[in-house]
Design a protein that fits this description.
396 residues, alpha+beta, four-stranded antiparallel β-sheet
Length: 396
Amino acid sequence: MHTSSPFSLFALTLGCALLTACGGGGGGSGGYSSNTLGKPANGGSTGSNGGSAGDTGSNSGSSGQPDGSGNGGVAPPLPRSMTISGRAIDGYLQGATVCVDLNDNGQCEPGDPSTTTSANGSYSLTVDPQQAWGKKMLAEVGPNTVDISSGGHFTTSFTLATVIEDPTTPIHITPITTLVTAKRIEGWSKTAAEIAVQQVARASGANPGNLYDDYLANGDTATADLASAIISKLTNATLAGASPIDLASQRAIASAIVDGGTLSSVNASSVATAKSRPVFTINLSASNMLGNPLYSYFGLTGSLVPVRTVALLASNQYSVDRQNYASSSWSSAAPVDYHSTQGGNTLQDNGRGSGFIAAANLVQPYGVRSVINNRIHAIDPNRGIKEPSSWASATR
């Protein structure tokens, strides 16, 4: 029986991402740029598991790979700064305040990186990546904001939102992304929220291929009409049960739209129900969560002995250990506890399969390069890092 790495199983539960280097371009057009600290040339310094950056490897690492593909290498340097850009859109919104919501309170405040949108709704904002990834991006719309599609000002203030997750592409803030964000802060997964919002769109006669697109640039009039209708709901004082409409009511209206599946199904009662639910931060801190051991259930051995994983971030290493429960206590599983046929394969940085890796060798500490909010940047000893020329993220 082949099993997945326990790191992979754990990461799906936690929602953290491990960033590793791979080939490909770094900065997308208008989405992301960085000033890096420099990188070693091929054949640079040796990583913790043997093998030098850019070499072919000699199986001098400790992962137990039988094909001599090599491990280790040098993790890519962190960018000193990150420039994110995009547009605030109902129609294109000129004069909206765009910010990174650092303290997760749903509003732009002094201390939050912020800017004002230009005549075509565009913004560009340079931020510290240690702060920005995983945070909400807000667009605050008020009486001084102009919808350049209609030329009109707004009589009611409201806030649009999205989450900073892929800085390599433009990050647009729209009524559509606001619906997704409203469900995510209620604890829904990103995928579940996106599926539900797509259903709302289809019920309204729209079919956006990508919920995060600039639908005006795409000529998608059906989605543009849906966005305008969402704004009408978000600024409806009767639905909110309050005037002026507070942030909690706006979030509840957005959530109730998704709950009902259609815009027409939203009423004051459904908004009140949504408003009563607890909301959660989606900005997990890996350092806080993993500073002490975090336990998760893994399964049973062939003799029905319980097995758990123990994740810990300490001493510049991220480790996931397996423990067996026997004699009324938990203890680390020894390599002899794994059957020789248990294990798996992984895709390496050179594009080749690793060959079979025994289960005991899948459980190895990751050398941590840095921790940014909910992301651990580390060297995966079973994949290797040989081309530290660009950044790419992979949720394992």
